[in-house]
Amino acid sequence: MFEGITNKIAESVVPPIVVGAIAKYKGEGCRNLKLAIALDTDIFQLWVNNARDEGIYDLETARHYAGMAPDAKNLLTMSNIRKWLMQEGQCDIVRVIDDTPGGNDWLERILERFKEGLWG
Known about the structure:
It contains 7 helices and no strands.
């Protein structure tokens, strides 16, 4: 029972961190997102650097929740991120990632960075 509760907590915290970070830095008309893809910007590192100042989960807190549910790492897939972005009304992000050369590769690298950063 305790494991089920901790998994739910992690599942409610971890995915929004990733989706939130991408949405936060997309910029007006997704201009920043296009630039981030072109420059291969590490959104994970931006999130780490700015989380505490922005009043969102910092790395230590996120690692704590992630550590409570190691299986939540498996939730961070391309298809899930796309689904969560769409559910959050961020269809423009999905479209930009799909339409920008290297966008899908960039997203895959970002997901790996979040996995490594949160679970090691």
